[in-house]
Amino acid sequence: MNQFKPPLSSQPPSQDRFGLRLSVPPSLPHYISPLSPIAFLLRAALIFPNKAAIIHPEKGIRFTYVEWAARCLSLAFAIKNTANWKKGDRVAIIAPNTPMILESYYGILAAGGIATPLNIRNNEREIAYVLDHSGASVILVDEEFAHLVPEQLPSNVTVIISKDTGGKDGIDSDQYESFLHTGRQEWEKAEKQEIDRWGKKGKRGWELIEAPKDENTPCCLCYTSGTTGRPKGVLTSHRGSYLAACANAFEFQLTSDSVYLWVLPAFHAAGWTFPWAVTAALGTHYIIRKVDNDLIWNALRDHGVTHYCAAPTVNIGLVNHPKAQRLPQTVRVAVAASAPTAELLQSLENLNVIPVHCYGQTENYGPFVKRYMEPSWSKLAVQDRAQLIARQGHGFLVSDEVRVIKTGKENDSIKDERDLIDVEADGQEVGEIIMRGNLAMLEYYNDKVATEKTVKHGWLHTGDLAVRHPGGEVHIRDRQKDIIISGGENISSLAVEDEIASHEAVLEGCVVARPHEKWGEVGHAFIVLKQGRKLTAEELRQYCRSRMSKFAVPGYIDFVDALPKTSTGKVQKNVLRENLRQAKL
Amino acid sequence: MNQFKPPLSSQPPSQDRFGLRLSVPPSLPHYISPLSPIAFLLRAALIFPNKAAIIHPEKGIRFTYVEWAARCLSLAFAIKNTANWKKGDRVAIIAPNTPMILESYYGILAAGGIATPLNIRNNEREIAYVLDHSGASVILVDEEFAHLVPEQLPSNVTVIISKDTGGKDGIDSDQYESFLHTGRQEWEKAEKQEIDRWGKKGKRGWELIEAPKDENTPCCLCYTSGTTGRPKGVLTSHRGSYLAACANAFEFQLTSDSVYLWVLPAFHAAGWTFPWAVTAALGTHYIIRKVDNDLIWNALRDHGVTHYCAAPTVNIGLVNHPKAQRLPQTVRVAVAASAPTAELLQSLENLNVIPVHCYGQTENYGPFVKRYMEPSWSKLAVQDRAQLIARQGHGFLVSDEVRVIKTGKENDSIKDERDLIDVEADGQEVGEIIMRGNLAMLEYYNDKVATEKTVKHGWLHTGDLAVRHPGGEVHIRDRQKDIIISGGENISSLAVEDEIASHEAVLEGCVVARPHEKWGEVGHAFIVLKQGRKLTAEELRQYCRSRMSKFAVPGYIDFVDALPKTSTGKVQKNVLRENLRQAKL
C-alpha cells in the first residue's frame, strides 16, 4: 500500500498555492457563503493535507486529502469538458463502494451537475428506466457493472468505465483514470489562462469553481423504489446535504480520529450523506467493494475503524463471524430499517460496538431521526434496553420536530396546514409520520404528480405509520403497507405485482412482506391463475428473475383460488399478512 | 435544591400539548426552515423535558428543559407586551451569569427582538452610551448592577430588575419574575383565543411564535470596544448564530452528557454562542454569578462539569487552587485571547483538563478558528506541544477558510476582491486576517463608516496581524496594535488616550500593552504634561477611574518629555513597546 503513487490527476499542483476554496458569486453579501458540501473536502485538504482521506485496501489504493481534492477537481473539469455539458445536467454513477463513487459526490457537484447514483442491484430494465428518466448525459460505471449499461443510448451520452485502479497501472488502461487526466489538463489550462491574464492574482485550483449562488440548487438525484411501481427520483439540495452531513457528523460523534467503514452502499440515499459527514469531521473513509465479513473484521481489528452503518442482518453476520472479538476501540454503528434485537444488542455490546438506532428515508437525506439514550438505561436488563432502543426516536440536530398525524376520516377534510392534527402521544394512536424543513427533499424529479401526493400542505408525508409515546418519540408500527424491506432493499410490492400480472397465465397476484430470519422480510406472492391455465412456482420465479432485481423476486409463491377483497374491490393485504402471522410461517 | 418549585411562568402548560415548535411563515417552501437558534431549546424540551437545563447553585435554582422552554416563552410574551413593542426592537441585558441572561438569548429572539447584552464591567458613562446608541426599549437588569442604569431614560423605555430568585420567593418580590408572569398570562390569553376559534386546531405554546421568515434577520447586538474609541455594535443574525452554535457544539464535542460551566461572561459576544450550543447538544448549563475558584472546583469535582471557556489567567488561578485535583472525567476548556504556556498546559493535563486553543472576535460570533491537534503530538515534550498549540489554527466546521492578506503598499491599490493577495505560507510574512461567510457579522449597527472600514471587497477585515505556517494554520504575531487585552477584556488604547487627553494638565498621552503575569497585559501610559503643570500618577489614575472601566485604567504611568514620533507626526507605539521589552519590565 505504501508503494501506491497517485497519477497526475490526483496530485496537488506543483505551485506553492492550490487555492483550496470556492469562488464566491460576487453578488452575495459578505455574511453569506452558500452552504455546499463541497466545502468540507477543501477544508479537510487545508487542515490535514497529508492525512488518509480514502483507504481502499482490496486495491491497495490510498489517497491523502490533498490528493483527493486534486482528484475531485480533475473529475469536475473532466465532466465540464464532456459534450454539450451545462449546469444542472445529471451524471449517473453505477458502482459498488469505490473511491469513484465517493469522489462523484464532490466532482459532479463541483461541475455544477447533479449526482445520480444508481442501485447496482437493479436489473438492466430498471437501470435503463432510471437513465432515461434522469436524462443523464454522463455515466460513470464500474467495470464489474458495465453490463448494466444499455447498449442503446442517446448519442450525446458519455460513458466512462472505471477499473478501480486508482491510476496505479497508468492511465491508459483505465478509462476513468484517463478521464480524470483530461480534467487535470483542463484545469491546468484554465489556471494558465488566469495567470497569463492576472499574474499573481490569477485564480488557482478550486478557486476556478464558483459556489452555487443559490444554496437550494439541486445536487443529488437518488432513485427510490419506495412507494409505487416506478422508481422515483428524489432531488436534494446543496443546503440540505450540507446540513444533513453536519447533523450526521454530530449525532454519530464523528471526529478527526474517526475511521468510517463503508458497509452501507454509497449509492443508497447519497450514502446517507456520509461521503460528506466523514470528511466534514476530518475523518478517514475506509472503503471496500463488497460486504465481506472477513474484510470487515480485518478493518475493525487492524485498521482502527470507529464507525459504520449497517442493517441488523449485516450485524448478525458480523457478531457470528469466527474473527469476532472484543475491540479495544468503541465502534458506533448506525442501524436503520429495523431495530437490533436484545440478543443482537448484547452481542454487539460485548464486542464494544454501540448501535445507534436511527430512521429516515431517501426523501429526507437518509437518517434524520435517532433514538436518544438516557443514562439511566445502562442499569436496565438488555431485554428492556432493547425494547426502549427499538423506538425510532426524535429528530436530529438540524431536523425539525417529527410529527405523527391522524389519518383516516379526519384526513379527508384537510384543507390547510392547520388541519394536520397530531395523534395523541399515548403510544397507542397510529398515524402517519410527516416532516418538513431543511432535511426534506426538494421534489420528485420530473414527477409533479408524485410530488403533490407526498408534499401536501407544506409537509412531506412519509407514508410510514407510527405512534408517539408520552416522551414524544416516534415509534413505527407498520411500514407503509406496500413495502417489503429485504436485506435493506425497499421492494415495491406494487411493482412486483405489475410484473407478475404481465404473465399470460396470471389472473391477478398480490405480494406481501413475510418475516425472514436472514433478510428481515421477503415477498410472499399469492397468485390466482386464469381459468384452465397452469404454472408452477418455479416457472413464475424464472419469469420474475428476467424482469426484476434478484432481491425483489418473491421468496414464497402460493397459488390460491381468490384474494380477499374489500367491498370496493381492494385487495386486503392486511388479511393476507394476518394469515401468514397466524400460520407462524 | 430539590425543594425548588418553579413559578407558574416557568411551568409547562397543564394541557396535554405544549406545541414545542415554531410556526413556519406560510410562504416558505416545505424544504426550508429558517435557521434560528430558538429551535435548539424547543428540541431539547421535546427530547429531554425533565433533564436539568440550568443549574444555578448559588441561588438553589434548577430548571428542567420543559420548564425553561415555558420560562423563555413567558419572557417572549412579556417583551411583546411592553409599550409600543415592535419587531426588531432592542432589549438590553445588564447581568452577570444568571438564568436571566441565558433565557434572554431565547426570549428576546422569540419576541422578534434583538438581544443586546452589555458589559457589566463598563462604567455608567459607557453603559449610557450603549443604551442610547442601541436605542433599547427594554432593559433587563440584575439588581447588583442596577446602579449602572442611567436615571434619565427616554420615557418609552421599560426597565425590569431581577433579583435572581427564579421565583422561589414568589413573584411579587422580584420584578423580573412578575414580568415573566405577565408574559405567561399573555401567552395563555393568546392560546385561549386560538382554541376558542379553532378548537383542537388552535395553536398552543410555542406555535404562537412564528420563525423569522428571513433567517438573516438580526438577533443579537453585542458591543465591542475592540478597535476604536467608541464601542461599536456588532449585529449578528439568526442564521449565523445557528450555524456558529452547531460548530461550537461539534468542535468542542458537546454531547447530551455534557455539563457546561459558565465561567465566560454570557454577555461576551453572546456567550460565544454557548447559550445555544450547549442546548443544541442537549447538555446542561451550570451557571455561577462570579468567577469564584472555590465554586468552580466544587462544580468540577462534584457536579460532573465537562466543559468551560476561560482565558489563561482564569486557568492559572484554577490549577493553583488548594482544591485542585485530577478529575475522573475529561474536561475540555476552550482557551482564547492567548495560548496556554507549557507550564499551564502541563498543569491542566495533569488535572485531566484538555485545553482547546481557539480564536475569534465578536465580529465573527466568538471563536471560529481552532487549533486542530495531530495524534503524533502526544509523543512530543510538553514545551514542543505548547509551541504547536500556540498557533491559532484553522477555521471551524461551517467557517470558510481564514485568510491572511498582504498589507502595506500592496494594500493601497486594492480595487476588488481579486486584489486581496494572500501572504506566503512561510511562517514569516505578516499580514492581516480576513474572513467572510456565515460566521461574519451583518454590520456595525447604525455605523456605516465603521462597517465600510471593516467590510471591504466582500471580506471582513479583523485588524489582527498574523502569519500562515506552511501547514496553512494562522498564527497571530501582533495584536491589532491599539488593543490591550487585560484579563480577557479588550481595552482600546485610543479610548483611554482620549480620556487622558481630556485632563487639563495633559499635553498628550499614549498607552501601550505591557505584559502582565496575572492579567496577560495591562496598559502602560506615557504622558507629556503641559508646560508648567504638575500631576502625579495617582491623581491621573483617580481621574481615569471616574471615566472608564476599572480594568481599562493604566496599570503603569510614566511622565516623559516627549513621545517618539514618525516624520508625519504619528506616535511610534512600536518603539515604546520595544523599549518596555528591552527594559524587561
TrEMBL record, chains A, B:
Which domain of life does this protein belong to? Eukaryota
Signal peptide location = none
Q: Which organism is it from?
A: Meira miltonrushii
What protein family does this chain belong to? Answer: Belongs to the ATP-dependent AMP-binding enzyme family.
Protein's name according to its UniProt entry: Acetyl-CoA synthetase-like protein
SUPFAM superfamilies, A to Z: Acetyl-CoA synthetase-like (SSF56801)
The biological process GO terms on file are: fatty acid metabolic process
Spans through the membrane: none
